[in-house]
Structure formats: structure tokens, C-alpha cells
Amino acid sequence: MKITLDQEGCIGCGLCAGISPELFAMDDTTGKAFVKQEDISGGQESEANEAADSCPVSVIAVG
Ligand code: F3S
Prior knowledge:
The protein is α+β, with helices and mostly antiparallel strands. The protein has 2 helices and 4 strands; from the N terminus they run βαββαβ. The protein is globular, with a radius of gyration of 10 Å.
């Protein structure tokens, strides 16, 4: 499983990093999120999906 995040569309709400600080972090310079760990294991899938579902602009994809 892989996480992708379209940084261009990110509005910097910070939800993803709040839900999963292990997988996402905020870039202090751009104010946008980035993926800390692109390849995830099965145990991390639900957290990744929760972050993807919570993103208000739906720029996170898990697959
Ligand atoms: Fe950006 Fe969505 Fe995360 S807007 S900060 S990618 S929840």
C-alpha cells in the first residue's frame, strides 16, 4: 500500500498530521502537508484511510 498526497491542492488544515503524525507532517515553510512514510503496512491502513477521508479537499489517496 502506498500513500500519495497532492501538495498543490493541500490547504494546510493539518487534519492528516493530527490523525496520523506517524504518516504525515506539516512543512513549516510551505504550510502544506507531506507524507512521512509512503509505503505502509496493513496495520497502518486504517489510519491512512481515516486521514484520507478527513481531508477537506481530498488530496490524499491510499492504494
Ligand atoms: Fe492538507 Fe488535507 Fe492534510 S488539506 S493538511 S492534506 S488533511
